[in-house]
Design a protein that fits this description.
The protein is elongated. The chain has a seven-stranded mixed beta sheet, sandwiched between helices. A five-stranded antiparallel beta sheet has the order 5-4-3-6-11, with no helix packed on it. Strands 13-24-15-23-16 form a five-stranded mixed beta sheet. The protein has 21 helices and 42 strands. The protein folds into six domains: 2-40 and 161-189, Phenylalanyl-tRNA Synthetase, Chain B, domain 1 (2-Layer Sandwich); 46-156, Beta Barrel (OB fold (Dihydrolipoamide Acetyltransferase, E2P)); 206-406, Phenylalanyl-tRNA Synthetase, Chain B, domain 3; 415-486, Phenylalanyl-tRNA Synthetase, Chain B, domain 1 (2-Layer Sandwich); 503-726, 2-Layer Sandwich (BirA Bifunctional Protein, domain 2); 742-829, Ferrodoxin-fold anticodon-binding domain (Alpha-Beta Plaits, 2-Layer Sandwich). By secondary structure, the chain is α+β, with helices and mostly antiparallel strands.
C-alpha cells in the first residue's frame, strides 16, 4: 500500500516537517513492514509561464518549430524553442528552467537548437511524469488553473508530494486504505485522527430495482451483505481529473483514466471500499446480484472474454452479467467519454467468494485485494455517497434520489476476555487500565464485568473494520502491538536439566555431520514422486497419494530417498556440475497395502482438538521412517599430473555406509545383496547384528541411461531407525598401542562364490585378541589357482598390550585364523 503524505496529513496530525523515514518508522512500530519510498522525479526550477509570442519557423527537415517568448515572472521573458502546436499566445504553461531535472533523468539546460538558444523547455504532461498522454503541451487552463507567471508549478501539479509504501499482512485488510493507515499512524505517535468516513454526508436513495439472488452461498453466507447504489446524472465527461487527485493516484500506484473512474479509485483508496461505476444508459432493466449460470461468459474491462464458473458472483441486468462481482467490471457497461449518467455500486461482498473468483480467473485486482480480506460494512453506503458527491462537485453532475440501500451488515462477534491474558501470554506486566484503554483505542467496545482489575473479565466487541479480531489471542496481539513491541523483554530461555536432544536426534545429527565431514553435501530433495519413480526403486509397493498435490504428475509420497537424490543429480548435471557427492537425512512414508489414509475430521484452527481427534489424525497418516541416502557420481579424485582420475563407484557407497555406522556406534556387516534398481553384481546388503538395514551399490546401467545419468552412479540407503535401535550410539575409542607390532601376509584359496568378508570374519575370529587389524590386499583369479576358486590375500597386524610379540606368537595366531577359515569355509593356504 502506497500512502501519499499529503493525503495522510489530511486525516491525521502529520507534522509539516515529517520525513518519509519518520512515517515509515511510525508504521513499522505498529507492525507493518517497510517496503519503499516514492518521490516525484521532477526537481526545480519548474514555474508557470505565459506565452507572449509564438513565431512558427519551418525547417529543412520538413518540421515546423515555434520560437516563443515566455513570461516566467522575471524582468525579461525567456526565448524557448518548442515543437508542439496545441497552444497559443496568452496560454499559461509549465516551463522547466535550466537546472531542472525531468523523469529519465532528463536535465534541462540552455542549449542552441534550430538557430536559437532555447533557455528552458515548455513541458507536456508525460514529460512531467503526470501521465502517459502526449497530446502536446500541458495547458493549465485545461486543469482549471490560472496562476501568475513565475509561480512554482511543483505544488500546483502535486509534484512536491511523496509517498511511503508498506507491506500489509493478509489479516489487516483495513490498512489498504488511507483511513486505516492514518488511524495506525495515530496509534503509533499519539497524533489526532479524523475518520474520513465521518466527513461524508450520507445520501439517501431508493427506488432502483436490485435483487440479491444467491442460490449457492458459501459456508452459509450470502454473496453480499450491505448493498448501496447511487445515481448521478448529467456529468460532464470532458472535464479533467483535478491535478491534486491525479497526483495522489499516481503516487498511490493508480493510473489516471478519466474523471469518473478516477473518483471511484480515489474513494476506494481513501475509505477502503471498492466501488464500480456503470454507464446507466447501457444497463437494461434492474440489477440482480447472483451466481453465474453454467456456460455464462462476460467480456471484462481488460478486453478478455471469460467463461464463468457457477460459484462466481456477478452483477447482472436483463442482458446477462455486466460485472464480475468485486473483481472487475464488464466492457458492455463501461464508462466512456460519452457517459453522462452514472450508476455507482458499492457492495460488501463475501470475502471467500471474491478470493476464489480472483484466483480462478487470475485477476488480482485492487478491488479483490481489499474485498477478500474483509471491508468495513459501515463505510459501504458512505463510499457510494462520497463518490456521488465528488462527481457532483468535480464533474458537474446532479445526485438523483434513485438508488438503493439494502442488506444487513455482518458484525464482529463479542469476545469474552480476561484482562490478565495479555500479561500471561506476552510476559509484560500490563495494567487493567492499560489493557482496556488500548482496546478502546483501536475502536473496540469494552464492557468490564465488576471492578477494573486484572482479575476481572470483559466483553470486547471489535470494531467493524477489524474482522480479524476473533478471540482472546488476537486481542492480546493488539495490546502488545499498540503498547509497543519494545516493551516486551528479551529473555533467553534456559533448558531444564536433562532436556535437550533425544538419543535418536543426537545420532541423526551425528550421521549428517559425519557425511558432511567426509566431503558430501547435504540436500533436501522433493518428497513427492511419480508412480514411475516409485516403481523404479520399490516396484509394486503401495504409496500414499496426496488429495491436493502441487503437481498432478508427482502426487505420491516417497518410499525411498534414492529417487529424490537421483533428481538432484540430474538437475546438477544439467547445470554442468559433473562431480557430485550428496546425501539426505529424512523421512519416508510406508503405508500398509489396501488401507486408506486421511480423514475428514480436520478441526477448525480456532479450536483445540480433543484427544480422540488427535488419535484419529495420528491413525490417518502412514508410518514415517527415518532414512539416510547417499549418491556419488563423476570423479572422487580429479586427474592430476602423474595421477589418474578416480571415478565414483561401489567403494564410495560402502565408505558412506561405514561413516553412518561409525557415527551411529554400530558394526556394519557387508554381504552380497540384491536390489531392483541396483547392478546385480555390484550390490551390497548392509547388516547390523545380522539384521538388514539397507543397501549400497551402483545403479543399473539401463536405469542410469534412462535417467540421463552417467553409466556408474554409486548410491546407498540405510534405515536409520533400525540402525539407531541396534546401536549403542557410541563407540569406545581403542587405545593406541605403544609396543611394536608384528605384520604378516596371508593368502587363502577359497571357492569363488565365498565373499571376502566371510574369509576376513573367520580369520579375525580365529586369530583372537592379538590380531589388531586386517586388510584385504588382493582378490586373484587366474593361473596358479584352481578353476572355480580365488585367492584372497590379507595383510595382518598383530600387537599385544603388555609385551613385544615374537614372530612365533604372531604365526601361531595367524594359523589359528587359517584353521577356523578352513573349518568354516574350506579355505586352504596358497602355495
Amino acid at each position: 500500500m502506497r500512502i501519499p503524505l499529503s493525503w495522510l496529513r489530511e486525516w491525521t496530525a502529520l507534522p509539516e516537517d515529517a520525513t518519509l523515514e519518520h512515517v515509515h518508522e511510525a508504521l513499522v512500530s505498529v507492525g507493518f513492514e517497510e517496503e519503499d519510498v516514492h518521490v516525484a522525479e521532477v526537481t526545480g526550477p519548474v514555474v508557470v509561464g505565459r506565452v507572449l509570442s509564438l513565431e512558427p519557423e519551418p525547417q529543412k527537415n520538413g518540421k515546423t518549430i515555434n520560437w516563443c517568448q515566455v513570461d516566467v515572472g522575471e524582468a525579461e521573458p525567456r526565448g524557448i524553442v518548442c515543437g508542439a502546436h496545441n497552444f497559443g499566445v496568452g496560454d499559461k504553461v509549465v516551463v522547466t528552467l535550466p537546472g531542472a531535472v525531468l523523469p529519465g533523468p532528463f536535465p534541462i539546460a540552455a542549449r542552441k537548437t534550430y538557430g536559437h538558444v532555447s533557455d528552458g523547455m515548455i513541458a507536456s504532461a508525460r514529460e512531467l511524469g503526470l501521465g502517459d498522454e502526449h497530446d502536446g503541451i500541458l495547458r493549465l487552463v485545461e486543469l482549471g488553473l490560472d496562476p501568475e507567471p513565475g509561480t512554482n508549478a511543483l505544488p500546483l501539479l502535486g509534484l512536491d508530494d511523496a509517498a511511503v509504501e508498506i507491506n500489509v499482512t493478509p489479516d489487516r485488510g483495513y490498512a489498504f486504505s488511507i483511513r486505516g493507515v492514518a488511524r495506525e499512524y495515530a496509534h503509533a505517535t499519539g497524533a489526532t485522527f479524523r475518520d474520513p468516513a465521518d466527513a461524508v454526508t450520507p445520501v439517501a436513495a431508493s427506488g432502483f430495482p436490485v435483487v440479491l439472488d444467491d442460490a449457492a452461498p458459501i459456508r452459509g453466507r450470502q454473496g453480499a451483505s450491505v448493498i448501496a447504489f447511487r445515481v448521478v446524472r448529467g456529468i460532464d465527461p470532458t472535464r479533467p481529473t483535478p491535478t491534486w487527485m491525479r497526483s495522489r493516484l499516481r503516487l498511490a500506484g493508480i493510473r489516471s483514466i478519466s474523471l469518473a473512474v478516477d473518483v471511484t479509485n480515489y474513494v476506494m483508496l481513501e475509505l477502503g471500499q471498492p466501488i464500480h461505476g456503470f454507464d446507466l444508459a447501457k444497463l437494461q432493466g434492474g440489477i440482480t446480484l447472483r451466481r453465474a449460470t453454467p456456460g455464462e461468459t462476460i467480456e471484462t474491462l481488460d478486453a478478455v472474454t471469460r467463461k464463468l464458473d457457477p460459484q462466481d458472483l456477478v452483477v447482472a441486468d436483463e442482458s446477462g452479467a455486466v460485472a464480475l462481482a468485486g473483481v472487475m467490471g464488464g466492457a458492455a457497461t463501461e464508462i466512456s467519454d460519452a457517459t453522462t449518467d452514472v450508476l455507482i455500486e458499492a457492495i460488501n461482498w463475501d470475502p471467500i467468494s471474491i478470493a476464489r473468483t480472483a484466483r480462478r480467473h487470475k485477476l488480482p485486482s485492487e478491488a479483490a485485494k481489499r474485498l477478500e480480506r474483509g471491508v468495513d460494512p459501515r463505510v459501504t453506503p458512505l463510499a457510494a455517497a462520497r463518490v456521488a458527491q465528488l462527481l457532483a462537485e468535480l464533474a458537474g453532475g446532479e445526485i438523483d434520489e434513485l438508488g438503493v440501500d439494502a442488506g444487513d451488515a455482518i458484525l464482529p462477534a463479542p469476545i469474552e476476555f480476561a484482562l490478565d491474558l495479555p500479561t500471561r501470554i506476552v510476559g509484560v506486566d500490563y495494567t487493567a487500565e492499560q489493557v482496556v484503554a488500548t482496546l478502546q483505542l483501536i475502536g473496540a467496545t469494552v464492557e468490564v464485568h465488576g471492578d477494573l482489575a486484572l482479575t476481572a473479565t470483559a466483553t470486547v466487541t471489535p470494531p467493524t473494520w477489524r474482522p480479524d479480531l476473533i478471540d482472546g489471542p488476537t486481542l492480546v496481539e493488539e495490546v502488545a502491538r499498540i503498547v509497543g513491541y519494545g516493551e516486551i523483554p528479551s529473555v533467553l530461555p534456559v533448558a531444564p536439566p536433562g532436556r535437550g536432544l533425544t538419543r535418536a536426534q543426537g545420532i541423526r545429527r551425528g550421521v549428517a555431520q559425519a557425511l558432511a565431514d567426509a566431503g558430501s553435501t547435504e540436500v533436501q530433495a522433493y518428497p513427492f514422486h511419480s508412480r514411475a519413480q516409485i516403481e523404479a526403486f520399490t516396484p509394486g509397493a503401495p504409496a500414499v497419494k496426496l488429495a491436493n498435490a502441487l503437481d498432478g504428475e508427482a502426487a505420491l509420497m516417497r518410499r525411498s530417498l534414492l529417487p529424490g537424490l537421483v533428481e538432484v543429480a540430474r538437475r546438477n548435471l544439467g547445470r554442468g556440475l559433473t562431480d557430485l557427492a550428496v546425501y539426505e537425512v529424512g523421512t519416508v512414508f510406508l503405508p500398509e497395502a489396501d488401507r486408506a489414509y486421511g480423514t475428514e475430521s480436520i478441526p477448525l484452527g480456532a479450536a483445540r482438538p480433543t484427544d480422540d481427534v488427535l488419535s484419529e489424525l495420528q491413525a490417518s497418516i502412514p508410518a514415517q521412517a527415518w532414512r539416510v541416502g547417499f549418491l556419488a557420481l563423476g570423479d572422487v579424485v580429479e586427474k592430476q599430473p602423474g595421477l589418474a582420475a578416480v571415478h565414483a563407484g561401489l567403494a564410495d557407497a560402502l565408505d558412506a555406509a561405514r561413516e553412518v555406522a561409525l557415527a551411529a556406534g554400530v558394526t556394519l556387516e557387508i554381504v552380497q545383496g540384491a536390489h531392483p534398481a541396483l547392478h546385480p553384481g555390484r550390490t551390497a546388503e548392509l547388516r547390523v547384528d545380522g539384521q538388514s538395514v539397507g543397501h549400497a551399490g551402483e545403479l543399473l546401467p539401463a536405469l542410469a541411461a534412462e535417467l540421463d545419468l552417467p553409466r556408474v552412479v554409486a548410491v546407498a540407503e540405510l534405515d536409520l531407525d533400525a540402525v539407531i535401535a541396534l546401536g549403542g550410539g557410541q563407540r569406545a575409542a581403542r587405545a593406541i598401542g605403544t609396543l611394536p607390532a608384528a605384520t604378516q601376509d596371508l593368502s587363502l584359496v577359497v571357492d569363488a562364490a565365498v565373499p571376502a568378508a566371510e574369509v576376513i570374519a573367520a580369520v579375525t575370529e580365529g586369530a583372537g585378541e592379538l590380531l589388531e587389524h586386517v586388510r584385504l590386499v588382493d582378490d586373484y583369479r587366474g593361473p596358479g589357482v584352481p578353476e572355480g576358486s580365488k585367492s584372497i590375500t590379507l595383510a595382518l597386524r598383530f600387537r599385544a598390550a603388555d609385551r613385544t610379540l615374537t614372530a612365533a606368537e604372531a604365526t601361531e595366531a595367524k594359523l589359528a585364523g587359517v584353521a577356523l577359515a578352513t573349518e568354516r569355509l574350506g579355505a586352504a593356504l596358497r602355495d
